[in-house]
Design a protein that fits this description.
This protein is mainly alpha-helical. Helix content is 57%, strand content 0%. The protein has one domain. It has 4 helices and no strands. Helix 2 runs antiparallel to helix 3 and helix 3 packs antiparallel against helix 4. The longest helix is centred in the middle third of the chain and has 22 residues. The chain starts with a helix and ends with a helix.
């Protein structure tokens, strides 16, 4: 695992610790997360609900990030159960909330499988 992937995963895990409403469930496989970045000044997430650089409230962003993560987990579970339509719905909603490179790939896989029915 690269240092950037490790840092991104650490930042995403810190989201749950810093924001109780954004608790992220455990996963069995390692997942690479997109880093949380302040939408106002583009500073990297430092583990607090308030941006350390500009003071912006990051709470809503943290809630959206955690919800998108749970939706992607639901999409993966739906894929395991061969429910491709439900998987696509979850993956698309997750991408609308918080787009990530891995989320876009998951959505594409779900779309391919859903269209093959």
């Amino acid at each position: 695992m690269s240092a950037e992937s490790s840092a991104a995963e650490s930042a995403e895990n810190t989201v749950a610790a810093a924001h109780p409403r954004a608790a992220i469930p455990e996963v069995s496989a390692p997942v690479v997360f997109a880093p949380v970045i302040c939408p106002v000044c583009r500073a990297r997430f430092r583990g607090a609900e308030t941006c350390s650089r500009c003071g912006a409230d990051l709470g809503p962003l943290l809630v959206l990030t955690a919800h998108a993560y749970r939706l992607r987990q639901s999409a993966r579970e739906s894929l395991r159960q061969n429910d491709f339509s439900q998987a696509l719905d979850c993956a698309e909603e997750a991408e609308r909330l918080r787009s990530t490179p891995h989320g876009a790939l998951l959505r594409a896989v779900c779309a391919c499988l859903a269209s093959s029915l």
